[in-house]
Amino acid sequence: MFLERVNDPADIKRLTIPELETLSIEIRDFLVQSITSTGGHFGANLGVVELTVALHYVFNSPVDRIVWDVGHQAYVHKILTGRKQDFPTLRQFHGLAGFPKRSESPHDFFGVGHASTSISAALGMAIARDLHKENHHVLAVIGDGAMTGGIAFEALNHAGHLKKRLLVVLNDNEMSISPNVGAISHYLTRLRTDPYYGKIKGELETLLKRIPAFGSRIANTAERFKDTLKYAMVPGMLFEEMGFSYFGPVPGHDIAQVIHLLRQAKEMDGPVILHVITQKGKGYPSAEAAPDKLHSIGGAVVKPKATAPSYTGVFGKTLVDLAKKDKRIVAVTAAMLNSGLNEFALEFPDRCFDVGIAEQHAATLCAGLSTAGMRPIFSVYSTFLQRAYDQVIHDICIQQLPVVIAIDRAGLVGPDGETHQGAFDAAFLRAIPNMTIMMPKDEGELRHMLYTAFTLSGPVAVRFAREDGIGVALDVPYEEIPVGKSEVIREGRDVALLALGPMVAVAENASLMLAERGISAQVVNMRFVKPIDEEALRNLALKNMPIVTIEEGTIKGGLGSAVLEYFALQKLQCSVYPIGLPDHFIEHGSRPELLHQVGLTSEHIAEVAITLVENQHGQKWVNRKTAGR
Ligand SMILES: Cc1ncc(C[n+]2csc(CCOP(=O)(O)OP(=O)(O)O)c2C)c(N)n1
Ligand SMILES: CC(=O)[C@@H](O)[C@H](O)COP(=O)(O)O
Ligand SMILES: [Mg+2]
């Protein structure tokens, strides 16, 4: 067993090529066992085993710096850099992170989770290296999916201009989460699949060198001829024209060939791109056959069988239903068809647009569609919407365009951790004029909110959690929800619990606990973060009711802030205690563990409510129910 003896990249440098091949087999077995037990990103890691071994064999981390894009494929890197024994805790509370993290290892040079950042970050490191007059290598390892992101091209553009020594390893497996899309993807396929390209390269370069360049007219003609030939035949011409030397394509599971080309690339001065062909899910037949389904998997811990569909599932079905009735509805996603759009894509292939990992473009595309009479919906995870903030402000909201933003994974997501928590969307969207923001208390209300969203004439966000619903009936007619109106779930006298989304059920439970203590709590489903239900707030203040706000989003700027701002601006006295996400990033763990950590539990809500009631009365709370016993 070679793997047992590998705890540091130095340990693999003594191995022969056949030994590295055996090590790769052992790593693949380890990954399968480990990820099927803990859950995690599966296909991408199986696909980069040989590539990662070769990278650590040829380069010298942590002197040389390897920057991973997205980082969901960095498990092999973690195994080779001394973290193998931590894999039983992968993505669990206080355990090994699912992505590279600077605080976790000196081999993790850049924290990731979101796509397309590696070339920018690596270029920054290369510039700093040269300013410090150091001499190490800097590498960005980026997938073909991540290469569809605009920021990756911004970085290529800059790197090609600066001509710094930088190696970009393009790991091309033809997959994003779903099959990769776009013109660049087609271009890569041409490079990959046309054997003529590969064969001709060496011959062509020799030929070009032989064409003499003398005499002005002949030289010009010769140069033009060279250019035409190059454009027609040289692989990677797009990258070459951007200032990169292009190497490849190299079969990425052939460790000897990858090592050979990495060594060549290492000798080059200036920016180099090495195009490596891999297979997502390599070595695990069902992941090879359906890489989109096994992109990320749950672990061996069996979740209790869901009794209700997920919010994402209900969103997808509702959208198909609404789109059947309204031909203007078109759906846009930035490489996340899995965010409920798979069924829509099958049903309406001409009305569904996967734009690649390009959230900014997706938002502005929706703006454009809406100016031309369509009713676009941008389906996006909360965390990835962060990428498109300016587009939402500048292109959608200033022009008051009727774009629906369906925000999946709003709130804590769990095992993906701090890069992926949907903590901020309510707060950052609330700051934008013309925006309407709603969140349903259950999957039934989600249907009504989507229906309502398409009746409005301006921008609207419907947020929902990474959760299963609670099992309400879904075969009921759609209802229009009055904008800015909350819903009283339970009347009360002593304290008001104002909750958002799935927190309404948690607040209801808290109200039962409070009832046990003789406290009558009003439970309100706020529904809207913006516009906030001012009438309801005013009435509570007039009744002198202390208020607890409860939301699965950052306290700063969210529902709690909205309530406090309202009272301050109206000069109304009211005691308000906001419960939500604190002012630090929340790491990975299960949703229940994280909710407990931040105090989003019925028990904590009840405790806070009791304190507010005591403050209101200026004395310890005496349980009216039990006082006389
Ligand atoms: C900004 C952003 N949008 C969306 C995602 C979700 N996402 C994670 S991995 C992935 C596909 C990446 O494809 P690729 O880079 O080719 O890596 P592969 O999984 O194929 O190895 C996507 C869309 C993300 N992480 N970041
Ligand atoms: C790496 C990445 O961004 C995605 O793969 C993400 O981890 C998917 O999250 P869900 O499992 O919540 O769909
Ligand atoms: Mg890919």
From TrEMBL:
EC number: 2.2.1.7
One example GO MF annotation: thiamine pyrophosphate binding
Cofactor details (free text): Binds 1 Mg(2+) ion per subunit.
InterPro entries: Dxylulose-5-P_synthase (IPR005477), THDP-binding (IPR029061), Transketo_C/PFOR_II (IPR009014), Transketolase-like_Pyr-bd (IPR005475), Transketolase_BS (IPR020826), Transketolase_C (IPR033248), Transketolase_CS (IPR049557)
Binding-site residues, thiamine diphosphate: H72, G113, H114, A115, G145, A146, N173, Y284, E359
Name of the molecule in the record: 1-deoxy-D-xylulose-5-phosphate synthase
Record-level GO cellular component terms: cytosol
Catalyzed chemical reaction(s): D-glyceraldehyde 3-phosphate + pyruvate + H(+) = 1-deoxy-D-xylulose 5-phosphate + CO2
Stored PROSITE patterns: TRANSKETOLASE_1, TRANSKETOLASE_2
Pathway(s) served: Metabolic intermediate biosynthesis; 1-deoxy-D-xylulose 5-phosphate biosynthesis; 1-deoxy-D-xylulose 5-phosphate from D-glyceraldehyde 3-phosphate and pyruvate: step 1/1
Keyword Transferase: yes
HAMAP family reported for this sequence: DXP_synth
Complex formation: Homodimer.
Keywords, ordered alphabetically: Isoprene biosynthesis, Magnesium, Metal-binding, Thiamine biosynthesis, Thiamine pyrophosphate, Transferase
Function per UniProt: Catalyzes the acyloin condensation reaction between C atoms 2 and 3 of pyruvate and glyceraldehyde 3-phosphate to yield 1-deoxy-D-xylulose-5-phosphate (DXP).
Keyword Coiled coil set for record: no
Gene3D superfamilies: 3.40.50.920, 3.40.50.970
